[in-house]
Design brief:
497 residues; mainly beta; 3% helix; 33 strands; binds beta-D-fructofuranose; 47% strand; six-stranded antiparallel sheet; Glyco_hydro_32_N; 2 domains
């Protein structure tokens, strides 16, 4: 249901309590509300923003359009947590509507400075000709959680050479300087990243464009993030307009990273390796990282994609955030992503199976549900089994006609996620399977199922598949299967109440 411009750019204060109540009720009655993921009470959620550890809490905001599932007037919605599992609802964080963010408080990041949390974001504006004018703006949060916006943008114009698509500042500190990367589109309609630096978070000096070996890689780069770990650097960004190549880049827009030698700041030359996708599932975009106590680097993404119709749209809400993942950077520049350990705090009732998974399909007592963690270890080399299965895997959310299948083909070490029978279809033009070839044989699958999503971590962080699925509530089964042989299986399952 497309909204008109007037409907899309209304501010919440101009909406009656009755209308809000109706919207809330509509989304509450959706059968696909998640049980333990961060989701909007109504309307549309997109990018995680302002993710930072400040004053004893992880603060996390998200892009929120309250009044529908179009991309309309964006607010920042605020949550905080001490453990990345239990989130305190802090309400709206940044309200749009001033001259410099009249058409939305777009994405940005947070960093502590002088005891306060500085939130740098893009003010989206449109003039009477509907021409876009982005401003980079600042909001400052104090220890009481009060957030006030500065009355002027801190970067008021787009530098020469770039179009109106100039947004999503991500800030970090290096020595005495704050640096920020901003997603940009060059005048020749290719994607790029522009950098600034500042002493005080208020006066920003243009440094220039980040130099990479990817001068022509899509038409726009959104949501950049730069960080260093273990003596290397990582640049995350979301290129739009990259064509699919075999099993790569199959979603409408991509999200990935390059790893590199640390930037020789203020020089902007990045010596980097190949672009790698962060996630191999159907629904992942615009991730952002924060650094936690003890130097942990945590990533949260948007479990959704722009310009895609989702089955919950007709229920007045859309999307959720991914579970937080802890990053490790391997010496060869590959990022490993593991679900944060704190998630174990959610674990409820447990079921377990340890034994031989025979050829065919098998179900075990206690293995079913709609919201749970499933941790499976597979051993094809065990001398307890006969011929090793050529293929094995798991079907999730199994019903009479439904299943979401994770299939592993041992010969090519290929994992395939198939949502062709998962339930209500979506984005089928982009295919109904995703696959990835592992470096090592599959030994472990750690799976997080919620009412309308799955997150699958293979081999301790080597590959992640994040996807929405829209099955019927009755589709609760878990089925293990093996073809042309057997595999040793150790499976543990915890309900997530
Ligand atoms: C990415 C994005 C950002 C922008 C925001 C607006 O999903 O398009 O580039 O700041 O969403 O909500």
């Amino acid at each position: 249901m497309k909204m008109t411009r007037e409907q899309k750019y209304r501010l919440l204060e101009n909406v009656s309590p009755q209308e809000i109540e109706q919207l809330l009720q509509q989304s509450e009655s959706s059968p696909w509300r998640q049980q333990y993921h961060i989701q909007p009470t109504m309307g549309l959620l997109n990018d995680p923003n302002g993710f930072a550890y400040y004053d004893g809490y992880y603060h996390l905001f998200y892009q929120w359009f309250p009044l529908g599932t179009d991309h309309g007037m964006k607010y920042w919605y605020h949550l905080k947590s001490t453990d990345l599992v239990n989130w305190i609802d802090c309400g709206i964080g940044v309200k749009p509507g001033d001259w410099f963010d009249s058409h939305g408080a777009y994405s940005g990041s947070g960093i502590e400075h002088e005891g306060k949390l500085y939130l740098m974001y893009t003010g989206n504006t449109r003039d009477s000709e509907w021409q876009r004018h982005p401003y980079q703006c600042m909001a400052i949060m104090d220890e009481e959680g009060h957030i006030h916006k500065l009355e002027q943008p801190v970067i008021a114009s787009v530098p020469a050479g770039y179009t109106e698509h100039f947004r999503d500042p991500k800030v970090w500190k290096d020595g005495d300087w704050f640096y920020c990367v901003i997603g940009a589109q060059r005048d020749d309609l290719t994607g790029a990243i522009v950098m600034y630096r500042s002493h005080n978070m208020l006066d920003w000096e243009l440094l220039g464009e980040l130099q990479t070996a990817l001068p022509q890689f899509g038409y726009m780069w959104e949501c950049p993030d730069y960080f260093e770990m273990n003596g290397q650097a990582v640049l995350l960004f979301c290129p739009q307009g990259v064509a699919a190549e075999g099993e790569q880049y199959r979603n409408i827009y991509q999200s990935g990273y390059i790893s590199a030698a640390p930037l020789p700041l203020p020089e902007l030359q990045l010596e980097h390796g190949p672009f790698r996708e962060l996630d191999h599932g159907f629904d992942f975009y615009a991730p952002q990282t924060a650094i936690g106590p003890k130097g942990r680097r945590i990533l949260v993404g948007w479990m959704g994609l722009p310009d895609t119709v989702y089955p919950t749209d007709s229920h007045g809400w859309a999307h959720c955030l991914t579970l937080p993942r802890e990053l490790e950077l391997r010496e060869d520049g590959v990022l490993l992503q593991r679900p944060v350990q704190e998630l174990a705090l959610r674990r409820g009732e447990k079921a377990m199976f340890a034994g031989i998974l025979p050829e065919g399909r098998s179900s075990y007592v206690g293995f079913d549900g709609v919201a749970y963690e499933l941790d499976c270890r597979f051993d094809r080399a065990s001398n307890e089994i006969g011929a090793a299965a050529k293929v094995f895997g798991i079907e999730l959310r199994v019903g009479e006609q439904q299943r979401t299948t994770i299939r592993y083909e041992a010969e090519h070490r290929r994992i395939i996620l198939d949502r062709s029978e998962a339930g209500q279809p979506l984005a089928e033009d982009y295919g109904t399977t995703r696959s990835y070839e592992l470096e090592r044989p599959l030994e472990r699958l750690q799976i997080f199922v919620d009412v309308s999503s799955v997150e699958i971590f293979a081999n301790d962080g080597e590959a992640v598949f994040t996807s929405r699925i829209f099955p019927e509530p009755e589709s609760r089964g878990i089925v293990f299967f093996a073809e042309a042989g057997q595999v040793k299986l150790h499976a543990e399952k915890w309900e997530y109440p």
